[in-house]
Structures are given as C-alpha cells and as structure tokens.
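Schema walkthrough. Field components (list of strings):
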Amino acid sequence: MGFEKAVLEHKDRVHSYAFWMLRDRDEARDISQEALVRLWQHRDRVPDEAIRSWLLRTTHHLCVDRLRRKAVRHGPPLEDVSPRLRDGNPGPDSAALAGETGRRIGEALRALSDRDRAIVLMRELQGMPYEEIAAALRLPLGTLKASLHRAREKLRLELTRAGVTP
Amino acid sequence: MIECGEIREAIQDGMDGPLEGNRREDVETHLRRCAECRDYREGMGAVRAALSSLPEQPFPDDALAAVWGRTVGSRGEERTLRAGWRDFGIALALAASVTLLFLPALFRPVRAPYSSPEIARADRDARRVLVLTSLALRRTERAALEQVLAGEVVPAVRRIPIRWSPSKHTSSRRPRT
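Field assembly_structure (string):
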C-alpha cells in the first residue's frame, strides 16, 4: 500500500483516537500530523498489514507523552464534541443532546487510566481485534483482556452515574 | 453452580465474539434466574452503544495538506534538488570535455599569423560546434557551459582554426600555410 493511500485510509481513525484520548482538538490535530509524518519516515519498515496498529501505537505514545507533559484537567467546550452533528444541521435540541451525551461519555473515558482508555478506544471505537490491540500496545493477551473487562466495568458505573446508561 | 463473576466474564467475552456451545448455554441458564446479571448484560450493551455513538473526528483538510507538505511534497523537493545537482555535474563534465578538447591547441606554437578568411572560418566552425554542443544540453547544463566558456576558453577558441565536418564533428588541425 502506498503512503498516500494509507494516510487517506487511516487519517480519521488516528485523529479520532487522539481526540478521544486527549479531548483537545488542537493537540489531536498536532499529534495526528506527527504520527502520519512518522509513518512516512518509517514507511520502508512498516508492512502494509501492520500500518493500522503501527499508527495507533505511535499515536498512543504521542498522546501519553503529551498527557504526561501537560495535565489535561478540563474537556473541550460542549460544542466541540459533536462537530459532525452540527455540520449535518440537526435540530438544536438533538445537537445539544448529542453534545451533552458525548461530553459525559468523554468524562467517563477520562476516569480510566491512559492505558485502559486506549484499550477501550481501540476495541470499541476502532473495532480492533484483541491481537492487534495487544500488538499496538505491546501487552500480553491476558493482561489486555483483563484490562478491557475492568475498563468496561468502570465505564458502566461511570455512565450509569452520569445518567447516560440505565 | 456457576458464579456470577464467571458469568459476567463470559458476558464480556460474548461482546467480543461468539461463545462456545456449553458456555453459552450456561450463561443463558444463569441469566434466566439472576436479575443482577441480566442488568449487568444490559448495562454492558448500553456501554457499547454509548461508545459507538461517539462522533468520528475527521482529520481537517488543512492538516492533511500540511502532512502532504511534510512528506510527499518534500520528496518532490528532494528529487528536484538531486536532479539539479546531477544536471550541474553533467554540465561541468561536458564543459571540461570541451575544454580538454581544445586545450592542446592552446600550447601549439603559432608560426605565422592567420589570414582573415582563415580566422573567419575558424570562428564560424567553432561557433557551429558550440551550437551543436549546447543544443544537446539542458538549460542548466548550457548555463554551466556558458559560465566555463565565458572565462578563457572562448578567446582561445576564436584563435583556433577548426575544420568541422558532419562526420567528425570536431577537428582542431592547424591550417596549412
């Protein structure tokens, strides 16, 4: 797969991952750019079938570095959470509702550790199989599975507490 | 009897792929009589639904343009730069060849002054050779050749009688006196 094709295929995935890890649009954009440029620099060493996990691993490490350097204490403004819904011109109530729900889910995600949040995002948002997540985060499968189960449990409690889920 | 903890682990496994026959039956049997585990399964389904409702964040177009600029765009610049140096090297080599071609003539003793027709013919022949040479070159090569020739070679070329013929292209024999 050519570099250009790989970028077009994975750019939104990388950006979404960075955004939901950091919940900061500017930083997500910077990190996504950096990850894609690094793919270019390592393009001779990354086989086609490993591009997705390589990109998400690189994005993950960049996010974790950024989180360590700068404590992200507050999420983005409400309207930043649901740009696609705003662009699609839904009614103001539904946009506000989706934005509020998105904000609460984002808050619940932030309650997880960086690693658990990464696992949940890769599994639930990106739909990656266990093996690929384990390769991306360099975790044993057993550890990965235990972390995912624990993270889901915590999310269930957080989302119930936030009124997102019953 | 299977405990709730084991069932809940199976419920999560079932979120990621189909359970094997016996395990699936065990879960279904347990759920029929355990309301808490039914709530757990419902809650897990809601978690998944909530996460899947998160809006995708499209990578901005201007950020994509910046990526192209830092990657495939820079490759084009590198390629142009390399090609420029290559062309310049070729031009220098050609210029050196032309210089070497005429260099021996510079050191031959001039035994007699040349007549005006001989000088005119030599000048004409030399110009034809240079024109043919420059036509074979690219712009950058031609510029480099002209730079070299702008120094000492051109005056020397003007003094050398060149009997140019299409078969030999260049010849620097001295004229008969």
